[in-house]
Design goal:
Blueprint lengths: L6 H15 L3 E7 L13 E7 L5 H14 L12 E7 H4 L7 E2 L1 E3 L4 H5 L7 E2 L3 H10 L1 E5 L3 H4 L5 H17 L5 H17 L5 H9 L4 H15 L10 H25 L1
Parallel strand pairs: 2-3
Antiparallel strand pairs: 1-2, 1-7, 3-5, 4-6
C-alpha cells in the first residue's frame, strides 16, 4: 500500500502500468522521497516496474502517450505531481550484471521528445544500478512481491562505478538545473564514500558540515530551495555554483578511486 495520503496520486499510474503491461508485470514499486524523506512540493513520484519480458516499440509508445496525459509538468504549476517511471525486464538485471539495461524511462525532462513521438529504445544505463539499489532497499510494492524478492542486490562497487560513469552527463547539464545538480552531487559523494544511498537533503546536510563555508552555504541554499523554504533563484550565483561543481566532482572522483583500490 502507498504511504498515507498518496493513494490518489499513485492509483492513476498503477492503472496505466497494469492496464498496458497486464500479465507481463511482475512488480510495480514506489520509491524515492515518497517513501523515505517525504515528498516536497517539487518532488517527483518515482516508480519502477519489473516485467517478465522486453517491451516492444508499440508498447513503449503507448506508455509514453498515457503518461504524458497523467504526469504533472515540471516545474510544478498545478495539482498533478511530475512522474518518473522506469521499466526493466527482470532477465536483463537478474542475475545481476553491470551495466543494467533499461526498457523504458518516462520523466518530465523528456516531455518535449515524447510529444514529438520520439521514444528511446532499450539501452544499458549505469545510473540504473543506483535506482535498483534504492528500490530494493526502500520501496513500497504497489503490485507484486517486495522488490527484494525480484531483484538481486547491487554490489557496492557497482554503485560507485555507476556514479563515476554518470558524472559527466550530470556535469554537462548544470545550467538551468543548478539546484538538482548540487543536491545530486552531494548524494553521489556520500554514496561513493559510504556505499549507502541517502536522500538529497540528508546528503546536503552531511556534506555541509565538513566543506568550506562558501560551499556549505550553497548546499544550504539548494536544500532550502528543494524544501520550499527559500526562493529557488540561481541568478547571480554562477561562479559559486561552478566552484562547488568542480570541488564536488574532484571529491567524488577521489572517493571512487579509493573504493576501487579497496576492491
Amino acid at each position: 500500500m502507498p504511504p498515507a495520503g498518496l493513494a490518489a496520486d499513485t492509483a492513476p499510474i498503477t492503472r496505466i502500468v497494469t492496464d498496458l503491461l497486464g500479465a507481463d508485470l511482475l512488480g510495480l514499486y514506489l520509491y524515492g522521497s515518497a517513501v523515505t524523506s517525504g515528498l516536497q512540493y517539487d518532488s517527483d513520484l518515482d516508480f519502477l516496474a519489473v516485467t517478465a519480458t522486453a517491451l516492444d516499440g508499440a508498447l513503449r509508445s503507448r506508455l509514453a502517450e498515457r503518461l504524458l496525459r497523467q504526469s504533472g509538468r515540471w516545474p510544478r504549476t498545478g495539482e498533478a505531481r511530475p512522474v518518473e517511471l522506469t521499466v526493466v525486464a527482470r532477465d536483463a538485471v537478474v542475475p545481476w550484471r553491470f551495466p543494467p539495461r533499461g526498457e523504458f524511462v518516462y520523466g518530465e525532462w523528456m516531455r518535449a521528445e515524447f510529444e514529438r513521438g520520439a521514444v528511446d529504445p532499450p539501452a544499458p544505463d549505469p545510473d540504473l544500478a543506483i535506482l535498483l539499489g534504492m528500490v530494493r532497499d526502500s520501496s513500497v510494492a504497489l503490485a507484486g512481491p517486495p522488490a527484494a524478492r525480484l531483484l538481486d542486490p547491487v554490489p557496492p562497487e557497482d554503485l560507485v562505478r555507476a556514479i563515476t560513469e554518470s558524472l559527466p552527463a550530470l556535469l554537462a547539464g548544470v545550467d538551468g538545473d543548478e539546484r538538482n545538480t548540487i543536491l545530486t552531487l552531494a548524494r553521489m559523494w556520500i554514496t561513493a564514500e559510504t556505499g549507502a544511498v541517502v536522500s538529497k537533503t540528508e546528503a546536503a546536510q552531511r556534506l555541509a558540515a565538513r566543506v568550506p563555508p562558501a560551499h556549505a552555504a550553497l548546499l544550504g541554499r539548494a536544500r532550502d530551495g528543494y524544501l520550499g523554504a527559500a526562493v529557488d533563484d540561481w541568478a547571480g550565483h554562477r561562479a559559486e555554483v561552478a566552484a562547488f561543481v568542480r570541488y564536488a566532482a574532484a571529491g567524488i572522483t577521489a572517493a571512487a578511486d579509493a573504493d576501487r583500490e579497496q576492491h
